[in-house]
Write a structure and sequence with these properties.
The protein is mainly beta and 227 residues long. The protein has one domain: Porin (Beta Barrel). The protein has 1 helix and 11 strands, in the order βαββββββββββ. The strands form 2 sheets. Strands 1-2-3-4-5-7-8-11 form an 8-stranded antiparallel β-barrel. Strands 9-10 form a two-stranded antiparallel sheet. It is elongated and about 75 Å long. Pfam families: DUF6048 (PF19515). This is DUF6048 family protein. InterPro entries: DUF6048 (IPR046111). It comes from Hyunsoonleella aestuarii.
Amino acid sequence: MLFSVSVNAQNDSIPNVAEDSTKIKLKYGLRFGGDVGKLIRTVVDDEYSGFEVIADYRLKNRLYIAGELGIEEKTTTTDYLDITTNGTYLKGGIDYNLYQNWLDMDNMIFTGFRIGASTFSHTRNSFQVYSTDQYWAPQFTSNDGTKFSDLTAFWVELIIGLKAELFNNLYLGLNVQLKGLASETEPSEFENIYIPGFGKTFDSSGIGVGYGYTISYRIPLYKKDKE
């Protein structure tokens, strides 16, 4: 007599785990670009020229290290002084993204801070000595063209802005800055009116404001799971 036995083996000890297809991966890499606002101002303002390069790098989901490098030349004319300022500046700090993106979106509404440093010079094109007797005394005017070099300034600034991804890895940004002057060197005969990277000094109050319109591109280096 023959007996046939069928056995159905089950691999209960090795469970099948389905991968989570909804897991979001974030792009990490270097994002760099420029401030188009300064380029536009260079074209439309005869008394200004400037250029700024921007960059950031994602450290964590919402945290970025960021910085700016630029050059500016600005002619300022008042009732008694005509002066041209030119120099370079460097700013570095962090940005924190306050915006919760949906799915794989990569937009930012951010806040952050910068530490800034500038080295610059002034060229005094002309000046006029103010006289209290405006009726009888002639006003003394000089076109000496004196240059004051090796000037420096340091400041801190708070920044608020946004960056929107227009196309894959291409971003359009807008930001505003509130700045506080920490230290500066001044010419012996007048005060700094304009500091590259800082802007107008607003009657030596040590407070400055700024803004930027940026276009940037991210070079994706790797992806990491969203935290």
